[in-house]
Specification:
The complex is a heterodimer of chains A (253) and B (360). Chain A has 253 residues and is an alpha/beta fold. In chain A, 34% of the residues lie in helices and 23% in strands. Chain A has a 6-stranded mixed β-sheet, with helices on both faces. In chain A, strands 2-1-4-5 form a 4-stranded antiparallel β-sheet, with helices on one face. Chain B is an all-alpha fold. In chain B, 70% of the residues lie in helices and 0% in strands. Chain B has 14 helices and no strands. The radius of gyration of chain B is 21 Å and the shape is globular. The chains are: A alpha/beta (253), B mainly alpha (360). Chains A and B meet through helix 2, strand 6, helix 3, helix 4 and helix 5 of A and helix 9 and helix 10 of B.
């Protein structure tokens, strides 16, 4: 069997003195669609920072396709995983299509410049995310939700085997939330992209993601299909709310 | 440079405002080069002794291109053109190019539209260096470089080095820390400069003249000694345009786009500082070019550093060459005063027109 596309092996990570991840092990196989869930401060974003190689763990190893991430060049990591940025604080006026084109930087030929493949990837991402109507506008003048879509399109244009998203739906209205989820499923099914997303909306996560990883206090407390992970007693214990607030998809008869 | 074939410039739908020139960087490049040639002819022609443009072209062709042109001009004209005016115009262009490239780099690197080549303390470092050189009772000349130029160069480099080292202490984000440290170190050096000027007595005017910036002392050896530093460092910056583009979305996003942010930041900081220090050493402190030119270029072609850097180089060269012509026509006022007088209102006008909201 081949190595998992992303693997955390007994990872402990900290920001300064504060330990945020404690001995976390996680295997994600190529082609999986995984949602990381858990209360604020559970370590979800830290897990992503470690998985992308931006935060070096105190202990343990992160491997991409079996190779330790710290031995890989940034460029190599960027060709394997696209990460949707949390925010777009652009210092200068930048058109929507120019932001999307940034996704091609890891593939850009420094001497020959953009090739047809780059143009096709940019146009394709714009079309798939459905932001054609925003072209030509300064990305800084868009609403937070529109900006979020532009950043997702940028990561889609990067066309990496792994796509990582941290709270991709936080600024989106309901229709766009569902559309974003459908896009992730489509990328997963049609392109075989491995998707790892941090989500707060448990209903969305349970509806669209076949595998949920529940973090609490820096540890993985449950990992599996939604009905198994989101057991009522666990929701009450981990999130401290009435499980009635979470609607699980009804099993299809 | 690669003006087409830039990834950021691939999708160019004809919608939204500001279509026009934004889609034709090559046209801008050509216009810029024409402006440079005109500036060269005008710059050589204007002065106490006016030189006929035809003579300028013939002398340049004869002396530098080895063309077989019959000598119809006086030896005095040739001396004025070759020994006085040409080095002056070329120095103005070189310094303009340097300041604009350095400004574009600092703005991109610090992700701050208000950044200019002097933002991290280069200016006060160079000024203090020059002031100390004036106060020292020693006179040294090497390749026509006096103590002032040498000390200004070293002062600028030392200031940035101190800022960079000091900024790495403490818990702020690297960018904020760098900017604040630059401000603090700059203020400290400015206090030192004020002290030096207070103590300078009769030498005050000499320090002051240097601070205002001018090309009165431009000579071939000074030009030729600075040329390779500025040219090589500028080209090295342009070859790293991809890193600056990645930084548009922030340092984390840049890392995710495959850029080794720490490494690139260190190299770009060093290159931009070298360019600035070389420019400051031969011309003193000339403001506004490094701030205004990159912004004007961005408004025309968008934020891609691949286009912004080379076009800023040309734009900066042209702007400073024309500013120097104006300074001479106006009776020899410091060129830094001219760039401020033209630059500030022009910048305000552009910002109003552009309506792009350059809030920080």
């Amino acid at each position: 069997m081949s190595a998992p596309i992303v693997e955390l092996d007994a990872v402990t990570a900290a920001y300064r003195e504060r330990r945020v991840l404690l001995d976390v092990s996680l295997r994600i196989e190529a082609g999986e669609l995984v949602a990381l869930i858990g209360p604020n401060g559970a370590g979800k974003s830290t897990l992503l920072a470690v998985a992308t190689g931006l935060l070096r763990p105190l202990a343990g190893v992160v491997r991409l396709d079996g190779e330790p991430v710290e031995t890989l060049e940034r460029l190599e990591v960027a060709r394997r995983m696209a990460v949707v940025p949390g925010a777009a604080n652009l210092p200068f006026a930048t058109r929507v299509e120019e932001v999307v084109a940034l996704g091609r930087l890891p593939h850009e030929d420094p001497f020959r410049g953009a090739r047809p493949a780059d143009r096709a990837a940019i146009a394709g991402a714009i079309e798939r995310v459905g932001i054609g109507h925003l072209l030509g506008r300064d990305a800084r003048e868009l609403s937070l939700g529109e900006r979020q879509l532009v950043l997702i399109a940028m990561a889609v244009a990067q066309a990496a085997p792994i796509l990582i998203l941290d709270e991709p739906t936080v600024h989106l209205d309901l229709r766009h939330q569902v559309e974003a989820m459908e896009l992730l499923v489509d990328l997963n099914e049609r392109d075989g992209t491995t998707i790892i997303a941090v989500l707060h909306d448990l209903t969305l996560a349970a509806h669209f993601f076949p595998r949920l990883v529940l973090l609490d206090g820096g540890r993985v407390v449950a990992d599996g299909p939604p009905p198994e992970v989101l057991r009522p007693d666990r929701i009450r214990e981990v999130f401290g709310v009435d499980p009635g607030f979470v609607r699980l998809p009804q099993p299809t008869a | 440079m690669a003006t087409h074939g830039d990834t950021l410039a691939t999708v160019r739908p004809r919608v939204g405002r500001g279509g026009g020139v934004r889609d034709r960087p090559v046209l801008l490049l050509v216009l810029g080069l024409v402006a440079l040639v005109v500036a060269l002819i005008l710059g050589v022609g204007v002065g106490t002794v006016a030189i006929d443009p035809g003579d300028t072209l013939r002398i340049v062709g004869h002396r530098f291109l080895g063309l077989d042109i019959p000598v119809t001009w006086s030896p005095a004209t040739e001396t004025i053109v070759v020994e006085l005016r040409l080095p002056r115009v070329l120095t103005a262009m070189l310094v303009g190019c340097a300041l604009a490239v350095a400004g574009a780099t600092f703005q991109g690197l610090l992700r701050n539209p208000l950044a200019d080549p002097y933002v991290l303390g280069t200016a006060s470092g160079a000024a203090l260096g020059a002031a100390i050189a004036v106060l020292l009772p020693v006179r040294l000349v090497f390749l026509e470089f006096g103590l002032i130029q040498g000390f200004a160069f070293i002062g600028a480099l030392a200031a940035i080095y101190a800022v960079y080292k000091l900024s790495r202490i403490g818990g702020l984000s690297p960018l904020t820390s760098l900017l604040l440290t630059g401000y603090a170190v700059g203020s400290l050096l400015a206090a030192g400069l004020a002290m030096a000027m207070y103590l300078s007595g009769a030498a005050l005017r000499q320090i002051f003249t240097y601070l205002l910036g001018s090309f009165d002392d431009a000579t071939w050896p000074r030009f030729l000694a600075t040329l390779p530093i500025i040219l090589i460092a500028s080209v090295a910056i342009m070859l790293r345009a991809r890193s600056l583009n990645g930084l548009l979305l922030g340092e984390q996003a840049a890392a995710h786009l495959g850029i080794d942010v720490r490494h690139e930041r260190r190299i770009l900081l060093a290159l931009a500082t070298l360019v600035t220090a070389a420019a400051v050493a031969i011309s003193g402190l000339i403001g506004f070019v490094g701030l205004v030119v990159p912004h004007v270029v961005r408004l025309l072609v968008g934020p891609s550093a691949r286009l912004v850097l080379p076009l800023s180089a040309i734009g900066g060269a042209a702007l400073l060459a024309y500013a120097d012509i104006l300074a001479r026509v106006a009776g020899g006022i410091p060129v830094g005063v001219v760039t401020a007088i033209i630059g500030a209102p022009f910048f305000l006008l552009i910002l109003r027109r552009a309506r792009t909201g350059y809030e920080v």
